[in-house]
Design a protein that fits this description.
- This protein is of the alpha+beta class.
- It is about 35% helix and about 20% strand.
- The strands form 7 sheets. It has a 7-stranded mixed sheet with strand order 17-18-16-15-21-22-23, with helices on both faces. A 6-stranded mixed sheet has the order 3-2-1-5-14-13, sandwiched between helices. Strands 4-7 form a two-stranded antiparallel sheet.
- Strand 10 and strand 11 (about 200) form a beta hairpin.
- It is globular and about 60 Å long.
- The mean pLDDT is about 95.
C-alpha cells in the first residue's frame, strides 16, 4: 500500500531525491552536484544530459538506501530551478545545446531593445514580470537566433522547450517513448510568455519574441489528480508511479511551508534568495519592483503571490570558497563570521548577475566598499552573510510598500538556514522573528505535498498544515538605531554598484 510521497528537487547546483512519510518527515534522501559551465563572462550554463543522469542516480540511490518499493510511493512531484531554458530533440531526447541558467546575462542587449521599443508595460501587464535577463523566454529567443539550425528544427516540430521541470518530467515519464511535455502554472509564469489572467501562453508575446508555439509544453495545475504521466518500468523508479506534482522551487517552498493564507510569507536561502508573500486568488500588481507570480495551482483554483527575487546569496558564499579560497566549506562561515564583532566597516554587494528585486538593474555589478587595512578575511566572510540579510530587507521593504502590511514573522527554509548566526543576523536586520521549521528542505516537501494531494495521500491543505512544526525562533536583538544605521550604509553601497556596465549611475 502506498504510504509515501516523493520529490525530485532539481536545483541550480545539484539534484536531490527525497521520500516523505504521511507526517512530512524524511524517510530517505540522496543528493549529487552537477557541473557549472561559464563559457564567457556573464554566461552560465548546465549540461541537461548530466542533470538527467544525476537525477536517475539519486532516485535509484534513495530507493535502494531506504529499501523503498515503487508500490509504496503514492506519487512523485518535481521542483526545479526556475527560468533555466532547456531545448531538446523530441525524437531522440538529446539536448540541442547547453541549458541557459537563470543567472545568465547574455540576453541583456535583447532585453534592452525590448525596453527601448516601449514593450515593458505590455509584458508587465500580461505576465506580472519586468523585462529582464532572468526569465527564460528571452533566453529561448536567443537560442533560436544563435544555435545553428535550431529555429528550423523548432518550426518543423522537432525541437521542444521547457524549464528544467519539463525536461525532468518528460524524461521521467518516458522521454522519446511518449514522455509528457508539460509544465505547471508556476513554472510557466516565469517565462515572460504566460498570461496571468488566462493561464495560457500569450500569442502576442510569442510573436514579439519570435517563438513557435509548438515548442512549448502544455500548462497544467501544480497538483494534478489527472496525472501528467507515470514513471516507466525501465526507468530509475522501475515501476509505474504517478507523476502529478510540479512547482518551481520557490513556490514549492511556499507550499511546503504551508503558507496557504493571504499574508503568509517565506524566504528561501539557496543559490539565490527568494521571498514570497501569498496574495490570494487575484494577481496583485507591484509598484515597488517585486514580481507578480503564480504561487500554486490546484484543481479548485489558482493562488498568486508577490515575490522578491535575489540573484546571488548562497552563490556568494560559493564564490568565497571556489574563487577566492577564503573558506573550505560553506559551514565554516558561521564560526569565521562570529570571530569578529562586525564587518569592519565594509559592505559587499554581490551583484554578479546584476541586481534583481527590487532594483532590476541589469548593469549593476558586484562591489566591496569601505575597505581599509584593518579589514581581514573574517570581515569579508561576515560581510557576505550580512549581504544576504540586507538584500532580504530590501525585498521586505518593497512588500510593505506594495501591501501596506508589515510581517510579524518570517518563515525560512533552504540549506543556509542551518547557520544559526545567519538566522540571528537576519532577525536583527529585519527586526522581526525568524522562524525555522523542523524540515529545512521545504522545497522538496512542497513538491511531495502536491503529488500526495493529487493521489489522496493527504486529504486537504489543513492536513498539511498539521504536519508543519517549529524547530527554532530567532528573536531580533539589535536596537532600532543600530538596525537603521547599518541598513542606510547598505543602501549607499548598493548605489555604488549600480549602472556599472553602462558606465553611468542609476
Amino acid at each position: 500500500m502506498a504510504q509515501y510521497a516523493a520529490a525530485v528537487d532539481q536545483g541550480t547546483t545539484g539534484t536531490r531525491f527525497m521520500v516523505f512519510d504521511r507526517q512530512g518527515q524524511v524517510v530517505a534522501s540522496m543528493y549529487e552536484e552537477h557541473t557549472q559551465i561559464y563559457p564567457q563572462p556573464g554566461w552560465v550554463e548546465h549540461d541537461a544530459g548530466e542533470i538527467w543522469a544525476k537525477t536517475r542516480r539519486v532516485i535509484g540511490g534513495t530507493l535502494a538506501e531506504g529499501r523503498i518499493r515503487p508500490a509504496e510511493i503514492a506519487g512523485i512531484g518535481i521542483t526545479n530551478q526556475r527560468e533555466t531554458a532547456v531545448v531538446w530533440d523530441s525524437a531522440t531526447g538529446e539536448p540541442l545545446c547547453n541549458a541557459v541558467v537563470w543567472q545568465d546575462t547574455r540576453t541583456r542587449e535583447l532585453c534592452q531593445h525590448l525596453i527601448a521599443d516601449g514593450l515593458e508595460p505590455t509584458f508587465r501587464q500580461k505576465t506580472g514580470l519586468p523585462i529582464a535577463t532572468y526569465f527564460s523566454g528571452p533566453k529561448l529567443e536567443w537560442l533560436l537566433d544563435h544555435v545553428p539550425g535550431l529555429r528550423q528544427k523548432a518550426e518543423a516540430g522537432k525541437a521542444v522547450f521547457g524549464n528544467v521541470d519539463t525536461w525532468v518530467l518528460w524524461n521521467l515519464t518516458g522521454g522519446p517513448q511518449g514522455g509528457a511535455h508539460v509544465t505547471d502554472v508556476t513554472n510557466a509564469s516565469r517565462t515572460l510568455l504566460m498570461n496571468l489572467d488566462t493561464l495560457d501562453w500569450d500569442d502576442e508575446l510569442l510573436e514579439i519574441l519570435s517563438i513557435p508555439r509548438q515548442m512549448l509544453p502544455a500548462i497544467r495545475p501544480s497538483s494534478d489528480p489527472a496525472f501528467y504521466g507515470a514513471t516507466q518500468v525501465n526507468g530509475p523508479v522501475s515501476g509505474a508511479v504517478p507523476v502529478c506534482g510540479d512547482l518551481g522551487d520557490q513556490q514549492a517552498a511556499l507550499f511546503g511551508q504551508t503558507c496557504y493564507a493571504v499574508g503568509e510569507a517565506k524566504n528561501t536561502y539557496g543559490t539565490g534568495c527568494f521571498m514570497l508573500l501569498n496574495t490570494g486568488s487575484t494577481p496583485v500588481p507591484s509598484k515597488s519592483g517585486l514580481l507578480t507570480t503564480v504561487a500554486y495551482g490546484l484543481p479548485a483554483g489558482t493562488t498568486y503571490a508577490l515575490e522578491g527575487s535575489i540573484a546571488i546569496t548562497g552563490a556568494a558564499v560559493q564564490w568565497l570558497r571556489d574563487n577566492l579560497g577564503l573558506i573550505e566549506t560553506a559551514a565554516e562561515t558561521e564560526s569565521v563570521a562570529q570571530s569578529v564583532a562586525d564587518a569592519g566597516g565594509i559592505y559587499f554587494v554581490p551583484a554578479f548577475s546584476g541586481l534583481f528585486a527590487p532594483y532590476w538593474d541589469m548593469d549593476a555589478r558586484g562591489v566591496i566598499v569601505g575597505l581599509t587595512r584593518y579589514v581581514t578575511r573574517a570581515h569579508l566572510v561576515r560581510a557576505t552573510l550580512e549581504a544576504i540579510c540586507y538584500q532580504t530587507r530590501d525585498v521586505l521593504e518593497a512588500m510593505r510598500a506594495d501591501c501596506g502590511v508589515g510581517l510579524t514573522a518570517l518563515k525560512v527554509d533552504g540549506g543556509a538556514t542551518v547557520n544559526n548566526f545567519l538566522m540571528q543576523l537576519q532577525a536583527d536586520v529585519l527586526g522581526v522573528p525568524v522562524v525555522r521549521p523542523v524540515v529545512h528542505e521545504t522545497t522538496a516537501l512542497g513538491a511531495a505535498y502536491a503529488a500526495g494531494l493529487a493521489t489522496g495521500l493527504w486529504s486537504d491543505l489543513d492536513e498539511l498544515r498539521a504536519n508543519w512544526g517549529v524547530d527554532r525562533i530567532f528573536e531580533p536583538a539589535w536596537s532600532e538605531d543600530r538596525r537603521e544605521e547599518a541598513y542606510a550604509g547598505w543602501k549607499k553601497a548598493v548605489e555604488r554598484s549600480r549602472g556599472w556596465v553602462g558606465g553611468h549611475s542609476s
